[in-house]
Amino acid sequence: MNNKVNILGVGVDSVTMQEALDKVELFFEERKPVIVATANAEMLMRATYDEELKNILNAAELVVPDGAGTVWAAHHLGYDMPERVAGYDLAQELMKRAPLKNRRIYFFGSAPGVADKAKLKAAELYPGIQIVGTRNGFFSEADEAQIIADIKAAQPDLLLVALGVPKQEKWLAKYKDELNVPVSIGVGGTFDVMAGVMKRAPRWMQRAKLEWLFRAMLQPKRAGRLIALPKFVLKVHSSKQKT
Ligand code: UDP
């Protein structure tokens, strides 16, 4: 149904949103713990010098093409990549379907109070949703045992983790088996957006592939991170020349 596209050494699944949802549905049924990653250009760029992240992504059961940069790279390398599957949208689609399937969700990450606000928003948007626990993402190593115990006790089917890249991926890879949650996803700024702490780019900017510019304008502190984008373009281009 889908195949992996190698972008700078990371296998990204060439899937539509619907195919990604079907895959996650299977993971829920199989009930063995899996990690779903959402690969944008910044993450793929980071994986070129962060071997641990690269290995985690290549071991993840599903890596969706999050962002215009990832879709561009696949096309530039001559592969099929039907559409962008943004992590934020994937999380919303899964939340929308959760009440029907009686699925339990846990929100872990973001600043104190944000996951609770996101939980209220989820209840408003998706009536009947069961958010069975929340925990902010600022903690020390000494707190981790309690965090893990709390997540396990809540018995979620879906764990959304917002600790930023690559912390969320590394944390999940380390504790996935112990947590034994069927599906875990690193969701970056998703709770911030749901809580209204952060805005998502308007649709026209998303369509114009300018979501990165919108983020840089809202969070000038992050603007430095934008240098990863032209670097990504150049790296993908030179990786094409080599093949
Ligand atoms: N975050 C967190 N713990 C940390 C670092 C970050 O909970 O130690 C949260 C932060 O509050 C934000 C989310 O992680 O809600 C994503 O952060 P950022 O936007 O920096 O990440 P990225 O864009 O890399 O996913």
Could you walk me through the main structural features you see in this protein, from its secondary elements to its overall organization?
The mean pLDDT is 95. It is globular, with a radius of gyration of 17 Å. The protein starts with a strand and ends with a helix. Helix 2 (41-47) packs across helix 12. The longest helix is centred in the middle third of the chain and has 15 residues, at 87-101. Helices cover 51% and strands 16% of the residues. With 243 residues, it is of the alpha/beta class. It is built from twelve helices and eight strands. Uridine-5'-diphosphate binds next to helix 9. Residues 109-111, 137-138, 162-165, 167, 188-189, 191-192 line the site of uridine-5'-diphosphate (UDP).
Q: What's the arrangement of secondary structure elements?
A:
Blueprint lengths: L3 E4 L2 E4 L3 H14 L3 E6 L1 H7 L3 H9 L2 E4 L2 H9 L10 H15 L2 E6 L4 H12 L4 E6 L8 H11 L3 E5 L4 H13 L3 E4 L3 H6 L7 H5 L3 H8 L9 H15 L1
Parallel strand pairs: 3-4, 3-8, 5-6, 5-7, 7-8
Antiparallel strand pairs: 1-2
Bound molecules: uridine-5'-diphosphate.
Number of structurally distinct domains: 1
For the largest beta sheet, what order do the strands appear in spatially? 4-3-8-7-5-6
Can you count the helices?
Answer: 12
Q: How would you state the average pLDDT, rounded?
A: 95
Bound molecules: uridine-5'-diphosphate
Poorly predicted spans: none
Number of strands: 8
